[in-house]
């Protein structure tokens, strides 16, 4: 017999999973909830009206379904409005990485075929450098936080607030296919030009639901609920700020947008607006905790997801001592991004801070609907014993289907029907995944695999170390030798010999392989970062090898 299919009444509503549906209910349920940016306070009722005004303004500029609208801005209420208005009219939102070089920015604008470009006045110097070479942009819109309009050769079609003021606050957001592309952005940290990643309405809605189901269901720690105050410290141009603005809006929570990431501003907002939920990369949190103002602040009750790079136990313990509820989230640009969260069970919360830190630094357990496997080179799934390592491959309803206009790279990404992350990991009997390295960063020393992340974690535990990155150094005898690049804390006394001795102690205890005794240490002034704050090991290899 054929499979039974659900019969549908002709007049029944076939509900598409569209981004507009993440917005409308919170506007009804929490119309007076606040959205804060640089002293300006808006309500969710205002957000709904401003989204409609922006939709009308863009339509008046000629934007139609399938066109691409690009944004160059700091984290702001405007960006949140674009997160909704642009895809809600059937257009594609291109979130431009403002930390790229002018030539890379030009490449992404042309590659994405942007039709309209909204640009903060602070980034006009970038546009001035590439003016006249943008092939597809028809209209420019100025985003300006200053009282004076800056001089520019860019032919603006108008200023954002003026365009919104002249537009109607009513717009009929029609239904369309939920598989319509909603967003595009470009990955960084790779060789060559950035790759375009794209997501549909359906994927973004399901990612929002999946993340919310995990965060909103946690009672003891790491929860995200309507009494929280949310502030992103991950750029909105980077994987939709990890998708959390969509979650925050759907929950109807107070949202605080900090603009440019300045330590003084971030800490002031945490204190003044009573921020309780954020997310960032380890380097940002390290910068905030070491800032002089942080010492006088009560940070207890602040929940922070760490992602984008491995969190060291030293950073975790430092945060826990300040009362910060810190835990890891994992994903990548191609996965929308969140795949796992390292929430602790009630029993784990009874453990010591040292024991908790080990778990909080793990990659975590999979979200609902995430089919995550750890496989060997033959694609055989590895046992959950905490020791058997392999690559993380994954399926989930919110993963990118590939790279924009790059069929070969897309086929490699999805080889064998699973998305390949390039991350090497183990999984324990409780289902907690721990990344041990990137496939391109793992070291082979005297025939044995050595994890650069494990070495970094050991060295970061030294009280005099501010930052560390481990790369492989070619060696005729051993194949590779680990090279640790270390930034010391200000006024700290730390020597290369002292750090190599520390690693040797861990090897003698059997915590890490004996091959790590071949480690070399080099004290440096700074460690290169990518445009989104991750350690740039590609640049480090070029510089030190």
Give a short overview.
With 545 residues, the protein is α/β, with parallel strands linked by helices. Among the domains are: 20-199, ANL, N-terminal domain (Rossmann fold), CATH 3.40.50.12780; 443-544, ANL, C-terminal domain (GMP Synthetase, Chain A, domain 3), CATH 3.30.300.30. The chain is built from 17 helices and 25 strands.
Any overview of this molecule?
The chain is of the alpha/beta class and 545 residues long. Among the domains are: 180 residues, Rossmann fold; 102 residues, ANL, C-terminal domain (GMP Synthetase, Chain A, domain 3, 2-Layer Sandwich). It has 17 helices and 25 strands. Strands 7-6-5-3-4-8-9 form a 7-stranded mixed β-sheet. The chain has a 5-stranded mixed β-sheet with strand order 12-13-14-15-16. The protein has a 4-stranded mixed β-sheet with strand order 2-1-11-10. α5 links the parallel β5 and β6. α1 runs parallel beside α9 and α12 crosses α13.
């Amino acid at each position: 017999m054929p499979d039974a299919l659900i019969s549908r009444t002709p007049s029944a509503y076939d509900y598409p999973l569209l981004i507009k549906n993440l917005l409308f209910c919170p506007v009804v349920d929490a119309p007076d909830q606040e959205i804060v940016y640089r002293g300006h306070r808006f309500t969710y009722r205002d957000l709904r009206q401003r989204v409609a005004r922006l939709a009308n303004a863009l339509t008046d500029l000629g934007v139609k379904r399938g066109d691409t609208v690009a944004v160059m801005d700091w984290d702001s209420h405007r960006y949140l409005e674009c997160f909704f208005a642009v895809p809600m009219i059937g257009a594609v939102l291109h979130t431009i990485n403002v930390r790229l070089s002018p030539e890379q920015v030009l490449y992404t604008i042309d590659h994405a075929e942007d039709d309209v470009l909204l640009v903060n006045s602070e980034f006009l110097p970038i546009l001035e450098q590439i003016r006249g070479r943008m092939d597809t942009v028809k209209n420019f819109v100025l985003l300006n936080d200053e009282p004076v309009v800056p001089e520019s050769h860019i032919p603006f079609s108008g200023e954002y607030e003026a365009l919104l003021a002249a537009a109607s606050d009513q717009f009929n957001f029609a239904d369309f296919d939920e598989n319509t592309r909603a967003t595009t952005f470009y990955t960084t940290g790779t060789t060559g030009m950035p790759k375009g990643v794209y997501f549909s309405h359906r994927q973004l809605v399901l990612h929002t639901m999946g993340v919310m189901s995990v965060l909103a269901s946690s009672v003891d720690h790491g929860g995200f609920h309507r009494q929280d105050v949310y502030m992103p410290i991950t750029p909105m141009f980077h994987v939709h700020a990890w998708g959390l603005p969509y979650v925050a809006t759907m929950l109807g929570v107070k949202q605080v947008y900090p603009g440019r990431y300045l330590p003084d501003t971030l800490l002031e907002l945490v204190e003044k607006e009573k921020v309780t939920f954020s997310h960032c990369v380890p380097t940002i949190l390290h910068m905030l905790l070491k800032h002089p103002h942080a010492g006088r602040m009560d940070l207890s009750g602040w929940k922070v997801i760490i992602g984008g790079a491995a969190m060291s136990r030293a950073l975790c313990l430092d945060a826990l001592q300040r009362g910060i509820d810190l835990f890891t989230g994992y994903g990548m640009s191609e996965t929308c991004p969140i795949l796992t969260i390292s929430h602790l069970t009630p029993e784990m919360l009874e453990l010591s801070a040292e024991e908790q830190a080990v778990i909080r630094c793990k990659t975590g357990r999979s979200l609902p609907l995430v089919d995550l496997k750890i496989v060997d080179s033959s694609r055989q799934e590895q046992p959950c014993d905490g020791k058997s390592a392999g690559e993380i491959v994954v399926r989930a309803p919110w993963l990118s289907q590939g790279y924009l206009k790059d069929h070969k790279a897309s086929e490699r990404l999805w080889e064998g029907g699973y998305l390949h992350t390039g991350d090497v990991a183990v999984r324990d009997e409780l289902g907690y995944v721990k990344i041990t390295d990137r496939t391109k960063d793992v070291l082979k020393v005297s025939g044995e695999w050595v994890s650069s992340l494990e070495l970094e974690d050991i060295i970061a535990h030294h009280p005099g170390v501010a930052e560390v990155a481990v790369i492989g150094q070619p060696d005729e005898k051993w194949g590779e030798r680990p090279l640790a690049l270390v930034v010391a804390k200000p006024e700290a006394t730390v020597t290369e010999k002292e750090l190599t001795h520390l690693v040797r102690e861990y090897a003698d205890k059997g915590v890490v392989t004996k091959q790590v005794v071949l480690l070399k240490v080099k004290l440096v002034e700074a460690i290169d970062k990518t445009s989104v704050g991750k350690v740039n090991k590609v640049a480090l290899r070029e510089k030190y090898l």
